[in-house]
């Protein structure tokens, strides 16, 4: 994952009629990193919906879970990579990254 900023937000993950809510711990323009491993059922393309802190508009796009800990047994999927993030939400994430990371230095 590219440069990521910490956060703690709920994320809705949907595949067909199944829906899960998981807490993300970081966001980048490429995807989300989660606090705990995602359920095994989230192993294909999915839809993600989340709000950046202090941003009333949701970000909705498709993503795919990514194995982040291949050495774990079983391998852990703790990230979702965005597949079709549009320019406007990408810009909002980029602004969040800039604001959040500039405060950390």
Blueprint (SSEs and pairs):
Layout: E1 5-15, E2 18-27, E3 31-34, E4 45-50, E5 59-69, E6 76-82, H1 87-102
Give the helix tally. Answer: 1
Fourth CATH level, the homologous superfamily: predicted glycosyltransferase like domains
Percent of residues in helical segments? 10-25%
Counting helices, strands and paired strands, the structural category is alpha+beta
Estimate the mean pLDDT confidence. Answer: 92
- The CATH architecture would be Beta Barrel
Number of domains: 1
Distance between the termini: 20 Å
- List the helices and strands in order: EEEEEEH
The order of strands across the largest sheet is: 1-2-3-6-5-4
Estimate the strand proportion: over 45%
Shape: globular
Low-confidence segments:
none
Largest sheet: 6 strands, antiparallel, barrel
CATH class: Mainly Beta
Number of strands: 6
Can you give a write-up of this model?
This protein has 105 residues and is α+β, with helices and mostly antiparallel strands. The chain contains one helix and six strands, in the order ββββββα. β4 and β5 form a beta hairpin. The chain has a six-stranded antiparallel β-barrel with strand order 1-2-3-6-5-4. It has one domain: Beta Barrel (Thrombin, subunit H).
Q: What's the short story on this structure?
A:
By secondary structure, this protein is α+β, with helices and mostly antiparallel strands. It has one helix at residues 87-102; strands at residues 5-15, 18-27, 31-34, 45-50, 59-69, 76-82.
């Amino acid at each position: 994952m590219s440069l990521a900023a910490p956060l703690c937000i709920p994320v809705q993950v949907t595949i067909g009629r199944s829906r899960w809510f998981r807490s993300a711990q970081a966001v980048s323009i490429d995807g989300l990193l989660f606090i705990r491993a995602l359920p095994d059922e989230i192993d294909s393309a999915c839809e993600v919906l989340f709000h950046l802190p202090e941003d009333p508009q949701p970000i909705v796009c498709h993503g795919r879970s990514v194995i982040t800990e291949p050495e774990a047994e079983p391998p852990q999927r703790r990230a979702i990579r965005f597949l079709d993030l549009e320019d406007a939400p990408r810009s909002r994430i980029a602004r969040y990254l800039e604001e959040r990371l500039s405060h950390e230095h």
